[in-house]
Design a protein that fits this description.
Layout (H helix, E strand, L loop, with lengths): L3 E2 H5 L9 E2 L14 E9 L4 E6 L6 E5 L4 E7 L1 E2 L5 E4 L4 E10 L2 E8 L3 E2 L6 E4 L4 E5 L4 E2 L26 E8 L5 E6 L4 E7 L4 E7 L1 E8 L9 E10 L2 E8 L3 E10 L2 E8 L1 H9 L25 E6 L16 H18 L3 E4 L9 H10 L4 E8 L11 E5 L4 H15 L3 E6 L3 H4 L5 E8 L3 H7 L2 H22 L3
Parallel strand pairs: 3-7, 15-19, 24-25, 24-26, 26-29, 27-28
Antiparallel strand pairs: 1-12, 2-5, 3-4, 4-13, 5-6, 6-10, 8-9, 9-10, 11-14, 12-13, 15-16, 16-23, 17-18, 18-21, 20-21, 22-23, 27-29
Helix pairs in contact: 2-5, 3-8, 5-8
The structure holds zinc ion.
């Protein structure tokens, strides 16, 4: 993944030069068939960063307008489905307003304090998935007398005053149920929630609104051996409470549900397949002999199992760029090549979507997997966040649908064999995961912007270690799937 510079993209669209058109070329975005919704948004004032999540893919469009300076972000195909939101702040970004611009477009307006302006080329859009976007603003500057020409936007939504305080619920308790497989959040009045992994805190976040923490709120009793190692309750703003959860080792967070208007629950599951993967670890890799495996796993015509290894990006697309100019495309190519060699040695037919530094779209990668009747698809990427966050490091493994067991097995092996930090196994709607029919995963081997990860990923010996760990995870998964 990488940050996108909106102005670089806009040069290709001269006819719309007043638009900072944002293009995401590593993730294809399908036009939503029905009205999609804005699920959540969050503005981090200390980082000047807005994060939005929609329930279908979206391609944001942005424009900068003057007097006062406003960044206007339109989300075509997205319906807000609730009253206009207006949040005021004390910093140089003075307010964030969200409203329904027209029937099919949600508009977000971030307004600067009077006299401040933004350098348009420094506004960065990053698609975490096609549904989650980070919009990072540069530090606003006091405008000089000759401000660059910027167009006036169509009328922006104005926020009605906030409705009565009596709607706000009190969060009364957050506790585990009797069998410790559910966390229950109870409120005095009807509430709504959103949930997601909070990447900056590495905690699972459930946000409840409109709500305030009751003075007598009870937190859960967390014993050792329980499913949760930490819960934080925070009043995020006047009507939002955040419940931040760190699951214990070996525990997977399941669905968030709302059994009643005043109750939100989070499922907690012991990851059984993870435990069996761990106990299977000492088994020597070379006992795996696909010729004798009785299995339903698909095979190539010559009887060998096919695994697709997909190093991300390539050619003109460097992927993420990190500390000292470290490029994602080179790291993942080296690791991918070594994973393939490792698998070949074990009798697996490993096919690389790219074996050299070339341009390759997403669809051909998927087509290769489909046409070769591959048993599994493993995409390899390196992660990035702002260069100002060298403290963010670690492994993330993504799956969609049937790839969960594969993701867990690879993730566990990489953690054990490399010592990389653990940022969890996560579900995501990446194109290559959604469009492949076999179990497929995307491994983000580390952050090129992370102090620890960047220095390790620069080291060829570490990349070999990483490749061995990924290969071992794939083999273990195939052994289990074949009932060996
Ligand atoms: Zn990538």
């Amino acid at each position: 993944m990488r940050w996108f510079n909106s102005q670089q993209q806009s040069r290709r669209f001269d006819q719309f030069s007043y638009f900072l058109l944002v293009s995401l070329f590593s993730i294809l975005v399908a036009a939503p068939a029905k009205a999609a919704r804005l699920e959540s948004w969050r503005f981090n004032a200390s980082q000047n960063q807005l994060e939005i999540t929609t329930d279908e893919g979206v391609q944001p469009k942005a424009q900068l307008v003057s007097d006062p300076t406003r960044l206007v972000i339109d989300l075509p195909g997205i319906v807000l489905g609730r009253p206009v939101i207006n949040e005021s702040m004390s910093g140089t970004v003075r307010s964030v307003r969200i409203g329904q611009f027209d029937r099919n477009t949600t508009r977000i307006v971030m307004e600067l304090a009077p006299g401040y302006t933004l350098e348009p080329s420094q506004i960065k859009f990053r698609g975490i998935t096609d549904r989650r976007w980070l919009i990072k603003l540069p530090t606003p500057q006091l405008a000089s007398t000759s401000t660059p020409p910027i167009v006036v936007a169509p009328k922006v939504p104005t926020a009605p005053s906030r409705s009565a305080e009596s709607e706000i619920a009190a969060i009364e308790s957050v506790e585990l149920n009797g069998s410790s497989n559910q966390l229950m959040i109870q409120a005095s009045k009807p509430i709504r929630y959103t949930s997601r992994w909070d990447r900056s805190l590495a905690l699972y976040r459930i946000e409840i609104s409109p709500a305030q923490l009751s003075n007598s709120v009870k937190g859960p009793q967390l014993g050792s051996g329980g499913p949760i190692s930490r819960v934080k309750l925070r009043q995020e703003n006047s009507q939002t409470v955040a419940v931040l959860i760190q699951p214990a080792t070996g525990v997977e967070l399941g669905q968030v549900n709302q059994p009643s208007q005043r109750l939100v629950t989070l499922e907690l599951q012991r990851a059984r397949s993870l435990q069996s993967a761990t106990t299977a670890a000492p088994r020597a890799m070379n006992v795996f002999n696909p010729a004798v495996a009785t299995t339903q796993l698909p095979r190539s015509p010559n009887g060998r199992m096919v695994v697709i290894i997909d190093p991300g990006h390539g050619g003109p697309d460097p992927g993420a760029i990190g500390i000292n100019g470290l490029q994602e495309k080179g790291i993942v190519l080296d690791i991918g090549n070594q994973v393939a060699v490792s698998l070949q040695r074990q009798g697996i037919q490993a096919l690389l979507t790219r074996a050299d530094d070339r341009d390759l779209d997403l669809d051909p990668r998927v087509q290769m997997a489909e046409q070769s009747n591959a048993a599994v698809f493993v995409s390899i990427h390196a992660n990035s966040i702002s260069l100002s966050r060298p403290d963010v490091n670690g492994l993330e493994t993504y799956y969609y649908d049937s790839g969960r067991g594969l993701a867990q097995t690879i993730h566990q092996n990489v953690l054990q064999l490399t010592g990389v930090g653990d940022r969890g196994v996560r579900k995501a709607r990446f194109y290559v995961l959604r469009k492949t029919s076999m179990p497929s995963v995307l491994v983000e081997v580390g952050f090129v912007t992370g102090r620890d990860d960047a220095s390790r990923l620069s080291n060829p010996a570490y990349r070999t270690q990483m490749a061995d760990a990924i290969a071992r995870g794939i083999l273990q998964y195939l052994q289990q799937a074949a009932g060996l």
